[in-house]
Every structure is written in structure tokens, then in C-alpha cells.
Fold each of these.
Amino acid sequence: MKQYIELSAEVQKAKEEGKAIVALESTIISHGMPYPQNVQMAREVEQIVRDNGAVPATIAIIDGKIKIGLTDEELELFGKSKDVAKVSRRDLAAIVATKKLGATTVATTMICAEMADISIFVTGGIGGVHRGAETTMDISADLDELAQTNVAVVCAGAKSILDLALTLEYLETKGVPVIGYETEVLPAFYTRNSEFKLNFSTDSIDVIAETLKTKWELNLKGGAVIANPIPEEHAMDEDYINGIITDAVKEAEEKGISGKDTTPFLLGKIKELTEGKSLVANIELVKHNAKVGSQLAVSFNNKTK
Ligand code: PSU
Ligand code: MN
């Protein structure tokens, strides 16, 4: 397996020094946000990770290699290029074998992080069960990855482009812990609240780190969702954003958008309908996740090294 994996100099050094490392995904850069905001977000997030005592490892596929940690030029490439595949579990081998440029989704970033022995991963939001999945069967591969791969994902919950009730049901069936950090309910990405109460919440990063350590020492395979609400000052008005999401979902249906194109289409549409306000919220919540996720990575690293 090692022949396919390439650590950046910064990540290699962090490994040698036993420092905490935080995995970051690249689909959020290539397919989740427009240029140049995407590259600026990626750089700022990496800096936040460093400022909080950990080392960032943005993951992507380049020229037949799984890169764990990107250079600044590579971040720019993934933000700018129109020729980047969105790589989920099913696509990974083909994109590596054919030496294409690939941006990793939450699912694939988890796979690659585990290969590189990185346990904590920060992103914006996870994929989930889409609205209407009872007929389309559109359920993100992120959920099955969370069931089988030992990486914790720090995110701001899931967007209500998804069916949050079904997403939580699915995670429960698959045995994936959803841990609320400073929240009793599942946050809904652009907003702090939803009607869904979580069954484990804590205000302590140390307790989350201890829980992850215990889970994996018990050989309970699979990841965990660490649900970290968007900061109050950046949260969007619930009725406003939910109205927009409903319109965006309707347009996706009318246009017959399906499969891997659905999530990028909806994100772009929501940005357009909010005149960019959703993008600002999205960037702020990722930055907050980077701070919390780095603190978690440091705490977890101190317990396990
Ligand atoms: N949610 C976001 N931004 C994103 C994604 C989700 O707010 O960029 C990306 C992540 O990479 C996630 C993927 O893994 O979309 C889910 O895609 P799908 O629904 O096709 O599984
Ligand atoms: Mn899907």
C-alpha cells in the first residue's frame, strides 16, 4: 500500500516528532466552493490548525499518488482546475491507477487518513441521506464509511439539503456515535439547531478524546461524528435558509440532477440564491471546526502516544 502514499514534508516531520495531525478534505475545495474563496479558505484552515498546535494534512490524489499534505501550489491547483474528479470510495482505485487529479470526499478522506494513521479529520459538513431517498436511494457513501473506518469527523452537522431524521437513523443503525460538542441537538450546518436531540453531548474536548480512545481500544470499528455548531454570530436565519434550500432541492429535481452532482449543484445554487451569504457562513463554520478539531487532535494525541 505504501507505494501509493506520499506524505508532505510537513506531515512527515510531524510524524517523526509525534505531533498531532489533522486530516482535511479536498472535495470541499474543488467542488464545494468557488475559486478563489476555496483556496483562501483552505489556506486559512491550515493556518488555524497550526495555530492550535497540530499539523494540517489536506488529502488529494495527484499523478497516481495519495497525497497526505499538499503544497501551496497544489492547494491552488485544486481550487482552480476544472479537471478534478470527485473521488468517493468507488472511484479511488481508478483515479489512482489512471493518474488523474482527484479531490477526496469525506468518505475517501477517511480512507486515506486511516492509511496514513491519522485519526482526526476536520471538514464542513458530511453527506447523508438525501431528501426523497426513499425513491432515489441517494445515500452518501460518507455514512457507510463512518460505519467502517476509524476516523473521527469534526463537522457542523449536516445540511438540510439532506433528510436529517433519516441521516440520524442510518447512523444509528450503523452504530456511528454522533457526539454533540457544546450542543444538545444536531446542528444543521448553516444554523445551530435542529429538532433532533443527540444522545451524547459534552462541553469537554478531553471527554471526546477519551471516548474515541475507548471506542477504538474496545475494537468498536468505525468513526464518529463530532457535531460542532456554527458560531452564533455567523449562523443564518433558519426560516430564510430553509426556504432557499427547499427551492434549490426543487430545482435539482426539475433539472434531473442526480448522483455525485447533486451535492455540488445544491451548494452552488444555495450560494447563488443567498447572494453569497451561504458561502460566508460555510467558510466560518469550517474555520471553527478547524479550531475545535485541532484541539481534539492534540488531546487525542497526548492520550495515545
Ligand atoms: N457538504 C458541504 N460541502 C461539501 C460536501 C458536503 O457542505 O463540499 C462534500 C463532501 O466532500 C462530502 C460530499 O463528502 O460533498 C458528499 O457528496 P455526496 O452527497 O455525493 O456523497
Ligand atoms: Mn449521493
Amino acid sequence: APRVFSGIQPSGGLTLGNYLGAIRRFVEMQDEGGYECIYCMVDLHAMTVWQDPAALTRNTRELCAGFIASGIDPEKAVLFNQSQVPEHVQLAWIFNTVARMGWMGRMTQWKDKAGKNAENASLGLFAYPALMAADILVYHATHVPVGEDQRQHLELTRDIALKFNYDYETEFFPITETVTEGAATRVMSLRDGSKKMSKSDPSDASRINMTDDADAIAKKIRKARTDPDPLPETLDGLEGRPEARNLINIYAALSDISAERAIANVAGQQFSQFKPMLAELAVEKMAPISNEMARLMEQPDEIDAILARGAERARGIAEPILKETYRIVGLVGA
Ligand code: ATP
Ligand code: MG
């Protein structure tokens, strides 16, 4: 059966971008049936930039609550945190020997996150895509649902699989398919239409958190950066207006309609009319999830038990794949 893998970092609280670009699709793939779904809280990835230990713990549990509140069923999908399945890191080491420095240096996430001071970035941040390839390939996953920003890392995952298969004259690792779908595969910052919305953005006003209450959501949307013109009749009219386009994409994704339909619905409106409507819609869709997250967070022991069970199931799949990898490369004892 086709196998789905995807991960989210506990590097902060979940955002509307994570929900629309990733989690919503995770739930659909789980519910569609026919896929074996594995969803991971990638805590070791989060550590590639500094995480306060207590915050990392809390964020991991909250992320798990976010998955479940959004509709992931831990009985159906395998739900766990990365650090508890050591095969990820073990395979990542093999991939560190496969991936080339040049490949890693070209990754836009590396360039964005390391910034101008790459000398001072962690070695882990540079190697991030090799660990990500291992996350996926240690399960022989065939489909990876992600936001637009992760496309390049998935190409690199394919390059690593291809090079490994070529170097060791095998067809052991599958060539994975990237799944990006919908109107909101790249939700932008509410403060800057050229930057994606991120949970690690220092500005809280730049994003809608899945735990924001109705007032916070309404305020952030009201204050979202826009231009003075009314909304046009068609999407063409949004060219060069990234902030307006972003709000239309969010509106479309939340209402489950295409961006074309969305702009037709609100053509001619001023932002003073459109924004309150969008805020109300966002609250209506997100409030039940955030309420459920808060309820689940009251029982951290239950969350920990779910993660522990998930890790056990994940290991059952990963262990033989790592062992076979070790055998292929010639490690004695495998
Ligand atoms: P960080 O800022 O720490 O990198 P993040 O918000 O980018 O956090 P990740 O954990 O890196 O979140 O990514 C988890 C998933 O959410 C990935 O599939 C990613 O593509 C998706 N995603 C992240 N941000 C957005 C966004 N703004 N729009 C759509 N999808 C997104
Ligand atoms: Mg990210």
C-alpha cells in the first residue's frame, strides 16, 4: 500500500499556515483510506535552532494535541516524536555520507535560516535535509504531503535516494512523490507578503496561531498589511498585490473553494468589509480545534502515552529498513 510520511517541528505553536498547508491534507489522506499514514513531531529538527528545553517539551505535546484536535486518529495513523525512533538519526548518518556539501548549500531554507551569519549556524541546520530524507525513507514512504516551501527538500530526498541506489547498485529506496494541493500551500506572513507565515517568526502579529482566541484572530486580520485598493473582479487583478492575494487564498482555503471562486465572491469589496468577514470565518473554522487542543493539553500523560505507542509502531517499520540499509553498505553485524 502507498505509505504517507510527513512531519512538523515543535519549534513554536502551530500556525494557520501549518494547518492549511499541511495538517488538513494529513487528515484527508488518513480519511481517504488506502494510505498507511505516519505523522511525526520532528523534535530533532526543531533543535537545529535554539529551543528552550521546557518550551520544546510543551510545544511537542501541544503539536500532538493539534494533530488530534484537527482530526488525526492515533489508532489509524502512526503518531510519534522523532527522537524516540533512533533509526531516523542512524539512517541520517548514512545519508550524510551520500549527500554532497554543494547540494545542501543550495537549499533556500538553509540560506533563509542561516541568514548572513552562516559561520554561526549549527551544523545540524546545514544537515537538516539529510535527516529529513531519512525521516521519509526509513519508512520507504511513497507520498509526502507538505507546504510549497518544502518542495526543494523533497527533490533533495529524491536525489539522495537516487544516488544511494546508484552507488550501491540497488533499487532499495523508493522515489517519493511530493503532494502539495489546495489554495493555501504557501500562506504568507500577515505583516510582509514576501515572507511565508512561520511559527518561528519573531513577530506574533505575522501569524495566526492555532491557539489564538477569537479576539486575537480578529485583531491580527484587521491589522494585516494590505493596500488601499478595493478587491478586483479576477485573480489577474491581484498581481503585484501579494498581501491581498494572501488573504484571498486564506479565504478560499477556509471556505474550501478555489481562489477563482473566492475572488468572484468578494469582487469590488473594500478591505474594511472583507477583513471582518474573513476574521469571522477564521474563528468559526479554527475555534473548535483550538478548544479541543486546550482540552487535550490538560492531560499531558495521555499525550505522552499516545506518542510512546506511536513510536513503538514506527520502530516496527523502521528497524528492518535500517538493518537492510546497513547490510547493503557492508556494515558487519547487520
Ligand atoms: P519554522 O518557522 O520553525 O520552520 P514552520 O511554520 O515553517 O516552522 P515547519 O514545521 O517547518 O513549520 O513545517 C511543517 C509543515 O507546514 C511543512 O509541510 C511546511 O511546508 C508547512 N508549512 C509551514 N509554513 C507554511 C505556510 N506558511 N503555508 C503553507 N504551509 C506551510
Ligand atoms: Mg519551516
